[in-house]
Amino acid sequence: MTEIWCRKEAALKKLPKTVPGVPSKNITSARVRTWDLPNLSNRHRYLALLSYLEIYNERLRDLLRDDTGESLTLKEDPTKGTYVAGGLREVTVKDATECAALVQQGDQRRVAAATKMNAASSRSHAVLTLSLEAIAINDDDKRGNAIRRGRLHLVDLAGSERQTRTGATGDRLKEAASINLSLSALGNVISALAAGNGRHVPYRYK
């Protein structure tokens, strides 16, 4: 599993919604043979799946569904590990063009609002996940129909904000508080992981 995180200051995010963000740039710039799935190997069959979710005010929403009002939840399972429950949509994709179209569709559903620093400020974090499965189909393979799975997570973080600079009030202020709290919690997790020494990692902090 691979994760790529990106965080920008709010002042740097004065971009129209038509400008591709971190997830779409990474997907559409893929020039590796991963996208030539049928020709990778005659011993495997490949399947690529894309999902896109938003974290807004501590709630999860599926950005690839028309009805994004239903909140998803995180669950833990001894076998699955941590996963999203509630019907997160995974779409089969064949190439970067199909991925880019889905990302653009999801970006249009993300919550954005105007502040003094940005006319279309992202008010949420987003996680784009590309899952790839390689299924062995050659009878000579001693492992039989073994399945190998890999995942790439692209995480677009909303920028931290200061009320004195953004002029946020009401809902915008509530959103900013949620954004800053989650970024602080993430920072604590990263610091604990970097420190090592058996230090407690506060994954569950709220």
From TrEMBL:
It is found in: Cytoplasm, Cytoskeleton. SUPFAM superfamilies: P-loop containing nucleoside triphosphate hydrolases. One of its GO terms (biological process) is mitotic spindle organization. It comes from Solenopsis invicta. This is Kinesin motor domain-containing protein. Belongs to the TRAFAC class myosin-kinesin ATPase superfamily. Kinesin family. Keywords: ATP-binding, Coiled coil, Cytoplasm, Cytoskeleton, Nucleotide-binding. InterPro entries: Kinesin-like_fam (IPR027640), Kinesin_motor_CS (IPR019821), Kinesin_motor_dom (IPR001752), Kinesin_motor_dom_sf (IPR036961), P-loop_NTPase (IPR027417). It comes from the Eukaryota. The keyword Coiled coil applies. One of its GO terms (molecular function) is microtubule binding. Pfam families: Kinesin. Gene3D superfamilies: Kinesin motor domain. GO terms for cellular component: microtubule associated complex. The keyword ATP-binding applies. Residues 1-206 form the Kinesin motor domain. Coiled coil: none annotated.
